[in-house]
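User: Predict structure, ligand pyridoxal-5'-phosphate.
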Amino acid sequence: MARIGENTVNWIYMASSQLNPPQRFLFGPGPSQVDPRVYAAMAKPIVGHLDPYFFQINMEAREVLKRLYGTANDFTLAISATGSGGMETCVANFVEPGAKFAVLANGFFADRMAEMGKRQGGAVVRFDKAWGESYSDAEAREFILREKPQVVGFVHAETSTGVFQSPKAICAAAREVGALVIADCVTSLGAMPIELDAAGIDIAYSCSQKGLSCPPGLSPITVSPRAMAWLKARVSPTPTWYFDLKLLAEYFDGAHRYHHTAPISMFYALREALSTIEDEGIEQRFERHRSNHLAFVAAAEALGLEMNVAAPADRLWTLNTVKVPAGVDDLKVRQYLMAKHGIEIGGGFGPLAGKIFRIGLMGVLSTEPDVLFLLSAFEEALRENGYVPPSAPGAGALAAQRVYSSLVPA
Ligand SMILES: *Cc1c(COP(=O)(O)O)cnc(C)c1O
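Assistant: Predicted complex:
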């Protein structure tokens, strides 16, 4: 029999060992900050993965995802995987062994897509451009018409460089040669317009933890009826079982046949994150991201910093890349921000290692007060690490405020 006091001791032990993560401000390339309403949803009791309630909240989420993608595709849903799992799903189902897969390769995630194509047995052809550049309409068209691939892959929002890629010319050329188009919308969904149907994108994937401000773990994908018809006619089985879209369709739609045990709490989180987006209004949300991005750029320039992406129209609103000024150690700046303010920002990698900062302004933290907080901390971290801005202290925040007041509707 337990002695009096034993339970008390255990209880104290349990209480002190309770998980207590540090408070961070996630201004990096992802994951982004999570809304408290989303955390609350994750603490709700789970139902089974075949419970009608699960499919009901999933339908609610799917409707909002369609609007964020700008599509009427019925097959728009989140799969149980991170963004890379969504990428693998799209590549494995649509790039058959031997098929020509043309990849517009201007960054880290385009490389990953090309690598996946190779592992699926695709004949990968690449159009390499420097990290930080986008493709003009003419360049994309010439490449696709010359290669005549079965599938084209590109990254709509390249998080490794901060580059936005306009999809229209790519999709039009792909249509001319009868190719399907896969778009990586991981860092655009939920924060920038995609207009998937108008652009002509057939297949796209994203993730829960960037523009949607939800924890990582789900990958919203969308497939056009044209691509679905192609998949139905595909004879060779998709080499991966877990990511086989025909099997996933039988679980999420149709007979709701058991495929895997969906992570219910993550679906609660996604449903709630999408519901906060609806409450705000999708157009308002895009506009909020645009104005905070513009304010950030003005501030960076006032601090004498240079954006990594030269043309303003090629810049992502969600992920701002700034060149590290000469003589400054980017790691020291990032460590200072973390130690002093609990702020996470990203550094560059690959050819951009040590050369850029990657600053995410996504979802919950893309607001005027948060941008101003970040700017003052960033300026301080740069000054503490040997950078002397050409302007008076606080010039960055002032420039940002000027943008905010100019954007206020008259
Ligand atoms: C983050 C990211 C991915 C990978 O997503 P994970 O959730 O980390 O697997 C793919 N593409 C782009 C553009 C990304 O930013």
